[in-house]
Amino acid sequence: MQIIAALQTLVTAVPLDVEPTPAELDAIDREMPLIRAEVELLDAQIMTIDRPANELDARRVRRARNRVLAARRDLTNRTAVQSGGAA
């Protein structure tokens, strides 16, 4: 019987328990309004999964979609202004 061993070095050179850098935390903070809006949209969609959507549910999903679009627009405009470009 022949022993089979990995002949390549490990792919992951950095340890897996690395904390996020301050720049990554700042990026998360900038994107937090969009993340919250997407979670609200997901919550509204989950509520309509197991039953037919009534007028109130449709309005809730529509408003959540509008919040996501507004948050994406604001994030894009903020990023464009910070980088010096026009949105």
Mean pLDDT, rounded to whole units? 86
Number of helices: 2
Strand element count? 0
Radius of gyration: 22 Å
3D shape: flat
**How much helical structure, as a percent, in the residues?**
55-70%
Q: Low-confidence stretches at least 5 residues in length (pLDDT < 50)?
A: none
Element order: H for helix, E for strand: HH
Query: How far apart, in Å, are the first and last alpha carbons?
Result: 65 Å
Please outline the major beta sheet: none
Protein structure class: mainly alpha
Share of β-strand residues: under 5%
Question: Would you mind describing this structure in some detail?
Answer:
There is one protein chain. This protein has helices spanning 22-47, 55-83. It is mainly alpha-helical and 87 residues long. The radius of gyration is 22 Å and the shape is flat. It starts with 21 loop residues before the first helix and ends with a helix.
